[in-house]
Amino acid sequence: MENLNSEEKIIQDLLPQGFNKSGRIWTGILIALCLVGMFAYYRQLRYGLIVTSMRDYVSWGIYISNFVFFVAISLVGSLITAVFRLSKVEWSTPLTRIAEMIAVAAIIFASVIIIVDMGSPERFYNLFIHGRVQSPIIWDVIVITTYFFISILLLYFPLLPDIKILIGHKETKDHRFKYLFKFYNFLGSFWKGTPEQFKLSERAINILCITIIPVAFSIHTVTSWLFATTYRPGWDSTNFGAYFISGAFLVGGGAVLVAMYVFRKAYHLEKYITEDHFEKMGKMVVLLALLYLYFNINEYLVPAFKMKKSEEAHLTGLFTGEFAPLFWFAILVGMILPIIILLFKKGRKPLPVFIAGIMVVVGAWFKRYLIVTPTLLHPFLPMTNVPESYRHYFPSWEEWAIAIGSLAGALLVITILARIFPIIPIHETLTEQHETAE
Amino acid sequence: MKQENNSRRDFLLNGLLAAGVAVGVGCSSKKNVFESGADETVIASGKKVKLLSVDGEIIEVDEAFLKPVPALPPVSNKEARLGIAGKKFVMVIDLSRCKNLRKCQEACNHMHSLSPGQNWIKVDSMDDDSAHTAPYWQPTTCMHCDEPPCVKVCPVDATFKRQDGIVLIDSDRCIGCRFCMAACPYSTRVFNWGTPQIPAEVAVQPYSCETSVPQKKGTVGKCDFCPDMARRGELPHCVSACPNGTFFYGDLNEDSVSNGSETFRFSDLIKDKSGYRLMEDLGTKPSVYYLPPVNRNFPYESGLENDKSEKK
Predict the structure, then answer these.
(1) C-alpha separations of A23 from A30, A163, A263, B146 in Å
(2) Which among A49, B18, B123, B217 has the fewest CB atoms less than 10 Å away?
(3) CATH of B77-301 among 1.10.287.110, 3.30.70.20, 3.40.250.10, 3.20.20.70
(4) Interface ipTM
């Protein structure tokens, strides 16, 4: 009897909750930011990319760095869900859905932002009717689409038993929102929870977990190849694939740290996302940050040792020149300080972990900017016969609005997913509860 | 379009009448002259004009037989993708002759109706303050590489390499991803960030890959080696515009290049003057060759006054 009660308690704890006041303000702000971004994009559609600060030399700006950032952060889904599941890391169960939600939101907005960057988005269909498989962009289109569908399925399949629970608790919660239950019915009414269904679902999830790992590696490797397949100083590197992947796992880990803290606070999940989770994820992020730092050393130290003529202006611009403040910010705040914080046991308490997570994510965003733009300001031939504005780059308000709007959009998707689905897998938590009880 | 027809007719007539050397006037267009005359009965007017025959003899022809040649219909964009069979176009730029007059740029911008501020030809000032090197002026066009990095990366086959070596852009297909701009080590490509500022009558024309006119918003443009001119046996606009004869253009298979007043055997020119290509180490195999700036016609400084706006 007591067992039943505790089970019911868990379900009640984990059922999606309506927005309280701060939740509504948060959502409102996100929607407002998205609308501003949409207005800026309307202007861009109307007048062309001239509304941005990109010009012939800096032909890729914060749209592309934002794209790389989104692709990077989306890799966390495969790390937490697939890698941890396959290696049977049980403590990660409460984090899997958070990771998968972040992955889905990020990959959606990676696709959105890459269309925003196109000069003629109305010709998007040309990618399908005239696509050349020799082009790394087509590889990116293929792997991102694949990754998107696998991520959606990896979010969906483990949700099915939870949806059954949600439908079962129609009376107790959210009686105001009838359409929500229609939506649950639409998604999961076929799920009866029979052993056959569980067996099938388990198998499907396993297959997805195995396939998503190479696909995840591909999306970020191919994204790095958009740069590494050119001749430009700073991009022309064989280190790029591994460098991007390690960076992606780091920023994904950082994002999970932040999300864990926020969801735990907002939905009072202290019992489910415990201090032990912060402890373990904190250690995990130290490992990932060290890995990324290692690749950074490779990426900058080796060319800096040689100081080839073509690399020199680029590297000195980063180390001591106009990009130095950002560069050292990204290295120190994005990697070294989080490592120091998280190395201490006291640093792995929820609040410092949250702060370290924020540092990782913010540092990572600027890191992507530093990968994309400074290189373009150092072409092989002199920048001649162009207007003065072509020699510098600082994003226009439209670019900022669209970039911030897309980040807000991704957060909005996560917020909405967390509103309609349980943040922590209910069914899996119950099963684990049973297993530990026995 | 009309204007172009006129200038073309003028060229042919002038070329023939002036008994000039009109280098490289293609056989096809000459055949047209005679064919159109043969179809109808023409009454001789009695007035004779002197012309230079193909064999280099001066001949007299009755004025009535001279007819304006109907404009060749522009090739379809499908044909434009194939290129001109049997040709391999090359350019030689003699750096000892350039004094940064930028007449090439002016002519190119005008003939391709480029928006203000856009340049397909740039004249780089090659000066390195730190090294003890002699500065010089280096006009850069598209290199029309034989291993074009831009074509390799294009996701939609909007930029393509033809059998005659020319790399062109189909602005009706370009999606504006700008990967080609990132890939090009010569930074030769320019983007139409906004709506091109071009005359309305030009803007409404259907786009032609060979003339690269009209440029369109949200697509990439670049030097096209003027294949429309080559089809008529004429030189690219930059070549004929340069008063110093810096640019030579021709066909590698014929092994000859010309700047309009001088014609050289391409292989001899490259051998005698130690021609080279830019960034040979990248393996892009450009079709543009440079002759080093030795025995210069002008001092570097004479070009500085034209270099008003930009200095590093």
Answers:
(1) 11, 23, 11, 59
(2) B18
(3) 3.30.70.20
(4) 0.91
